[in-house]
Amino acid sequence: MTKPEQRYSTPPQRRAVDDIARSLRKIERFLLGIFLMAVFTATYFAKDVLLPIVLGVLIALTLSPVVRWLYRRGVPRPISAVVLVTSIAVTSTLGVYAMSGPLTRVVREAPTVGARLETKLRSVMASVEQVQEASEQVEKITEGDGEPGVQQVQVRESSGLLRAAVGSVASAGTALFVAMILSMFLLAASDAIQRRIINALTTLHEKKQALTIVRDIERQISRYLGAITLINAGLGLCIGLAMHLLNMPLAWLWGVAAFLLNFLPFLGAMVGVAASAIVAILTYDSLGYALVVPLVYFALTAFEGQFVTPMLVGRRLELNVVAVFLTVMFWAWLWGVPGALMAVPFLVLLKVVCDHVPALRVLGSFLSDGSAVDPPAVAQGEAN
What parts of the sequence cross the membrane (predicted)? Predict the structure, then answer.
């Protein structure tokens, strides 16, 4: 019997029940969409509150295996938590203090970078016989110099941007301080929190599954952030040495900047290449020699992104590059730079949950890079 025949042979009561069920499913999807929109809206406006909480949880998840390892060797959890978090805070403070002098000079010279870069590029255009275009630029600049109001507006805009940057740094420092305190408490009471979560569940299967998910999340995020930190340190060292060999000013600062920027997937490398190109053009007289600097920066970051990180991290995480890119773009739009920094750890957490929950297996399959084969699928294929 065909499907149309089955449909028209169905009793009217059954058709009415099916229509109600379909309507209820549509209402359920509609309410789910409204709920997700409400969650995204609340997440956007509650950034100042949620950011230190999420960052503190990530720090705690990263350091939990270390705290547990020290606990097995007789070190109490509160002591190891205080020592680890304090060490990170002191190291970060010393690093910021060491960079404060050069960064202050960079910020002081920032308003003049645009004019200097325009002058340098104008001379380059003149050297390649683009006389007409260079003359038009000179006329525009001459007309702009004759209007003092324009110059004042540019200075005010630059100072406004600098004030916004300083305010952003201060806000990030406050969020980081709160996150450090929160992570200290979470690390000191990590096992107690896990026991409360597990005791809240009813069946033994749910308890085992929850414990497996929590431990797997700790292990995956700790491995990812630890490996990325070591890789970024190596990249920063290589870029610092390359900048020193190319006679770039403050070569060690470029290494530190590369180390920090590389925590931003995709975006960090582009910012580093653009910044190195601008400084190189302002530093060297020859445009050809100046272009070597961003090319070297790009080559090192490309080698790290295409070979080193996939070899050391990709085999463990098996994340889809498209999913990583979309996640970074979404969180960068939602929370800015802090969101982009936390995008990949959040994606790791989501993938671990999807791998252990059968209802989310389709989403987990999308997040995977496809190189790994699902063990149940393998077992079913061998059985057939």
Answer: 30-46, 52-71, 78-99, 165-189, 224-246, 252-282, 289-309, 321-350
